[in-house]
C-alpha cells in the first residue's frame, strides 16, 4: 500500500541549551532534520512526507530539503498537535498507512523501518520500533517504592506505523478526552487497538541533551 510519512519538527528543544532548535543542529555537515528525513524518504512505498514546522521557522529554507514530495504543515503547541496537523493534511484513501518519525532521531536504520512496515502489514495493524529495557527499573520519588518488573518493559522509539484514518481518529478522540499523548501508540492503546512491538536498535536515539549529539556523531562514524 501507499504510505505517507509524518515528521514532527516544530519543537524548540529547550533541553539542548543550544541557540537553535535541535533538529537544526549539525551532525557531520548536515542538519539533524536532514539525517532524520533521509532514511524515511528512502522507503520506496513512502509517497509524501509531511513535515510539521513552526510557522515562523527561520532555519528550514537553508536546509537541502526541497524534494517535490515534501509537504510543509504548521506545527502545534505540543508534539501531538504537530502530528495531528500533518495527519489532517493526508488523503487517507490515497495513503492508507502512515509512518511517524521524530525529527530528532537521525540514526534510524532503513532496514529497521522496512522491518516495522513488513511486520505490521503481515499482522494487519499498527506497530512501533522499540528496544528492551536493560537497566533494573525502580519506581519512587526520593526513596524507592518498588522494583518494576523489567522483563516486559520497552523503550518506545520511532518510526511508529499505523493506518492513517484510524490514527487520526484516535488522536482526536484521545485529545478530546484529555489523555496525555507522547507518542502515536499511546492514542491507539487508549482506544484498545493492538500495537505491535518490533525490536529496533538503541543507536536510534532521540537527540535530547548536549551529550546525545556527541554520541550520535560517534555512532555515525561507526556506521560509515
Ligand atoms: O521534545 P521532544 O524530543 O519530545 O520532541 C520530539 C519531536 O517532536 C521533535 O522532532 C520535535 O521537533 C517535535 N515537536 C513538534 N512540535 C512540538 C514539540 C515537539 O513537532 N510542539
Automatic annotation (TrEMBL):
PROSITE patterns (alphabetical): ISPD
Any GO MF annotation of the entry: 2-C-methyl-D-erythritol 4-phosphate cytidylyltransferase activity
Keywords for the protein's UniProt record, in alphabetical order: Isoprene biosynthesis, Nucleotidyltransferase, Transferase
Catalysed reactions, semicolon-separated: 2-C-methyl-D-erythritol 4-phosphate + CTP + H(+) = 4-CDP-2-C-methyl-D-erythritol + diphosphate
Pathway given in the UniProt record: Isoprenoid biosynthesis; isopentenyl diphosphate biosynthesis via DXP pathway; isopentenyl diphosphate from 1-deoxy-D-xylulose 5-phosphate: step 2/6
InterPro entries: IspD, IspD/TarI, IspD/TarI_cytidylyltransf_bact, ISPD_synthase_CS, Nucleotide-diphossugar_trans
Pfam families: IspD
Keyword DNA repair carried by entry: no
Reported function: Catalyzes the formation of 4-diphosphocytidyl-2-C-methyl-D-erythritol from CTP and 2-C-methyl-D-erythritol 4-phosphate (MEP).
Family the entry assigns: Belongs to the IspD/TarI cytidylyltransferase family. IspD subfamily.
Annotated PANTHER family: 2-C-METHYL-D-ERYTHRITOL 4-PHOSPHATE CYTIDYLYLTRANSFERASE, CHLOROPLASTIC
UniProt-recorded name of the protein: 2-C-methyl-D-erythritol 4-phosphate cytidylyltransferase
Native source species: Alishewanella maricola
Amino acid at each position: 500500500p501507499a504510505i505517507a510519512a509524518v515528521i514532527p519538527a516544530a519543537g524548540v528543544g529547550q533541553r539542548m541549551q543550544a541557540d537553535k532548535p535541535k533538529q537544526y543542529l549539525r551532525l557531520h555537515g548536515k542538519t539533524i532534520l536532514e539525517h532524520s528525513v533521509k532514511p524515511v524518504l528512502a522507503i520506496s512505498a513512502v509517497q509524501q512526507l509531511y513535515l510539521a514546522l513552526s510557522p515562523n521557522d527561520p532555519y528550514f529554507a537553508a536546509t537541502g530539503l526541497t524534494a517535490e514530495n515534501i509537504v510543509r504543515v504548521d506545527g502545534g503547541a505540543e508534539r501531538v498537535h504537530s502530528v495531528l496537523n500533518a495527519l489532517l493534511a493526508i488523503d487517507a484513501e490515497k495513503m492508507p498507512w502512515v509512518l511517524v518519525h521524530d525529527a530528532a532521531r537521525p540514526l534510524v536504520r532503513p532496514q529497521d523501518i522496512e522491518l516495522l512496515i513488513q511486520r505490521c502489514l503481515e499482522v494487519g495493524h499498527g506497530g512501533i520500533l522499540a528496544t528492551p529495557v536493560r537497566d533494573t527499573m525502580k519506581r519512587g520519588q526520593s526513596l524507592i517504592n518498588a522494583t518494576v518488573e523489567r522483563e516486559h518493559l520497552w523503550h518506545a522509539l520511532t518510526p511508529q506505523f499505523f493506518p492513517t484514518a484510524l490514527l487520526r481518529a484516535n488522536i482526536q478522540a484521545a485529545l478530546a478526552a484529555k489523555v496525555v499523548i507522547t507518542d502515536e501508540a499511546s492514542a491507539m492503546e487508549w482506544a484498545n487497538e493492538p500495537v505491535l512491538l518490533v525490536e529496533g536498535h538503541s543507536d536510534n536515539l532521540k537527540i535530547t541533551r548536549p551529550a546525545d549529539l556527541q554520541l550520535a556523531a560517534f555512532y555515525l562514524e561507526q556506521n560509515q
